[in-house]
């Protein structure tokens, strides 16, 4: 242990001698981290928090049908029951759509990726649609054409800020919820022919209100500039270390320290 202690002291003495020969560089290596740390503290102290004492509420919105850019619906499996459901769905939308059935989901996905005119894709899960009537339990998946990626794998956005999130209206804007509502209504009517929904019935949505919170816009600013400040703080140190290593390699100098 004594030998290790002497080697460690020798290494510190060597680095101290090298730093003493470069006074200006050593001073800047110390002052730069202190400067950027002080700057972060001043930025933090410059801005205050705003307390929002009331709850944030949102207006209600109506369900919107898919856009009219393309008008083609594909579904699977291709049976009489599923085709009847999809055709009733199109009739409820009151638009001219081309309805095409596929035997497997793989064929449907291949067509969905190949043809840009596909607006709606419906996948009925299970092998219960070959009989004379619909099964008691129906599971399906919807795929709606959209301009932007939905990023459904992410629970939260990349940058989080205090307070309510901006939210996303893609489920409403691209017609997903509208198609889901119409398809569920069609399935209910198929199960019970005596059930007829009022055509004037208007389904509307409204975001949950957000409770009072403290707003601090500097948090997002600090999140973006903190990595930059860390890099700038130790940039000179990294350059000097790289320079010293290259100099020792070039001059074939070695300092052997055994740990």
TrEMBL record:
An example of a Gene Ontology cellular component annotation for this protein is: membrane
Q: Does the keyword Cell division apply?
A: no
* GO MF annotations in UniProt: ABC-type transporter activity; lipid transporter activity
InterPro entries per the record?
ABCA
Q: Where are the transmembrane segments?
A: 23-46, 218-239
The answer to whether the entry has keyword Transmembrane helix is: yes
Q: What is this protein called?
A: Uncharacterized protein
Q: What organism is listed for this UniProt entry?
A: Potamilus streckersoni
